[in-house]
Amino acid sequence: MDYDQYMMIDRKILVALSLWLLAVCSVPAIDNDECMVCHEDKETVRSESEGMRDELFVDNARFEQSVHHANEIQCVDCHSDIVELDLDSDVPHPVSLKRVTCEDCHSDEGEAYQHSVHRKAKGKGVTIHCHACHEYHYASHLDAATVSERKNGFCLKCHDPDKFHGWLPRKKTHFQHVECAVCHVHVDVPRYVDLRFYDNNEKKFLSGMELLAKLETDHDAFAELIDRDGDTIISMSEMAHLVKRIKTAGVSGTFHGEVLVDLVPDVHKIERGGASRDCNNCHHPESSNFDNVYITLNHADGSIDRHRLSREVLGSYYVNHFYVMGSTRVRVLDKIGGGLLFVGLLGVGFHCALRLFTMNLRRRLRKEEEAGRHE
C-alpha cells in the first residue's frame, strides 16, 4: 500500500470521527434540573400505567445525596432514549421508555448477579431488579453502612431471619453484629471487622464525621493523630492513645465491633444452598475473618476513609461487645486469670511445703502432749 492510499484511509477516518463528534455535540444536553421541573412534583402521575409501577416523583433532596449524583450522573445517562424535551407537549419525552439496565455501567456486578439465586427466581415468575434492593434514584455509598443498615435495607425487605435459622445458637447476637452476607456469600469475598464508637452520653453510635467533630479534627489530621509511627496500621498502644484523646475530649463511650463483607461484585452472587454453617469460619483462633480490622470514617458525600488496626486490638478492653468464643480473647483478663491461678497454686504449694518441713516438729509435740496426759 503506497503513501497516497494511507492518506486516503486517514482522511476517511478523520471525516467519520468529525461527523460523529458533530452528531454528539449537536444534541442539546438535558440537565437534571429540567427533569425535576416535573418529577419533583408529587402530583405527577401516570394516566396510563402500561404495566409500570414505579413512582414518577423523585425526591431531589434525597437524589442529591445519592452516589449517582455525587458522580455527576445525569438522568439521561440512564434514560438514554430521551434525547430532547418537547416542552409544548403534556409529556415532554416518549411515554414508553426502555428499562434502565444497570449492567451498562455495573458490568461485573451484573455478571455476578446472573448466577445468583435472586436472578434464578425469574424461572418461578419472580423478577427481582436491581432497584428492589438499591433504589434507582437514591442508591448510596454503603461502605460506611452498619450491619443493621445493610440487612434492613436489603435482606429484611423479603426475608425473615428468625424463620430459617433455628440451628443457629444466640441468633439475636449474630443478627446484631454479623452481616447476612458474611455467611451467605462465597468464601473468597473478603470479610472484615468494623469498629464503631458508641457515645454513652448521647446513647447512640457516632458516625465518622460526628467522631471527628468530637475530637475537633478532620480526616487528614485524624490519620496523623491515630497512626503515630506512620506504618498505616494502628497498634495496641496507638489505640490506647486514641481512646485517651476521646476521653480528654469529654466523650464517654467504647468501641463496638461488627463483621461485614467487602462490597466487591461477587456479593451479588448469592447461591441457593451456598450459605456456610461452619462455625469455625469465625470461632477459631486463626480465623481470617478477623485479619482485617478497620475504623471507617465517612465523608459528607458518602465516600470513606478506612484506618486499619492490628488484630490484637480485638482482644483488648477497648473493644466491647465483640467477644467471639474460640477466636478473640481479652489478653488482660487472661493475665489476671493466670495470675490468680498462679497465686492459688503458690498458696497450695506453700501450705504443703510448710506441713512437710514441720512434720517432725508436729510429731514430737504430739508425743509430748500424749505423755503429759498419761502422767
Explain this structure.
- With 375 residues, the chain is of the alpha/beta class.
- It folds into three domains: 3-124, no CATH class; 156-329, no CATH class; 333-368.
- It is 41% helix and 10% strand.
- The protein has helices spanning 3-26, 32-39, 60-63, 67-70, 75-78, 107-114, 117-120, 131-134, 147-153, 161-164, 171-177, 180-184, 208-214, 219-226, 236-248, 331-357, 359-374, and strands at 191-199, 204-205, 233-234, 253-261, 293-298, 304-309, 319-320.
- Strands 1, 2, 3, 4, 5, 6 and 7 form a seven-stranded mixed beta sheet that branches.
- A hairpin with a 5-residue loop joins strand 5 (293-298) and strand 6.
- The termini are far apart.
- The relative contact order is 0.09.
- Mean pLDDT is 85; it is low at 1-9 and 19-28.
What's the gist of this structure?
The protein is of the alpha/beta class and 375 residues long. Helix content is 41%, strand content 10%. It is elongated, with a radius of gyration of 33 Å.
Topology, element by element:
Layout: H1 3-26, H2 32-39, H3 60-63, H4 67-70, H5 75-78, H6 107-114, H7 117-120, H8 131-134, H9 147-153, H10 161-164, H11 171-177, H12 180-184, E1 191-199, E2 204-205, H13 208-214, H14 219-226, E3 233-234, H15 236-248, E4 253-261, E5 293-298, E6 304-309, E7 319-320, H16 331-357, H17 359-374
